[in-house]
């Protein structure tokens, strides 16, 4: 009697268990790195968004020939009297220089907050607005936007008195100044 033995394809329970265990270990090792990468990308995106809105504010001031400002705002029709930009901001024309969006002033842009974001944004103490004059310059000293997460400083956008800006992504552990 001739019996043909055919080997069946597949995995044994032991092979499947070992493969699952190895994958679980690799995922556990890689997960913190993926989380840090995701947060770094969120910080970069927020720095880019702040920079783009600052550039839009400066460009509007130059093209209008009068002051245009960007201020923190949770209501999106008035400026908040603090340096916390986490809830959002607005950009408005300010030809009369009263540092607030009047009903006659044009609101040029708004940014709403993301409820899912764990990032906070604060500016330098005493600098509640980014204001550009008709030449695209800011008054006073540098204005720094600090981007923080869980008490650690993650990034900065710095605007100098000439109105130019630069960004800095921080990799070293540093306490948030706010």
Automatic annotation (TrEMBL):
Pfam families: GspH. The chain crosses the membrane at residues 12-34. Residues 50-163 form the General secretion pathway GspH domain. GO terms for biological process: protein secretion by the type II secretion system. It comes from the Bacteria. It is a single-pass membrane protein. Keywords: Cell inner membrane, Cell membrane, Membrane, Methylation, Transmembrane, Transmembrane helix. InterPro entries: N_methyl_site, Pilin-like, T2SS_GspH. Its main location: membrane. It comes from Xanthomonas sp. 10-10. Belongs to the GSP H family. This is Type II secretion system protein H. GO terms for cellular component: plasma membrane; type II protein secretion system complex. The keyword Transmembrane helix applies. It is found in: Cell inner membrane.
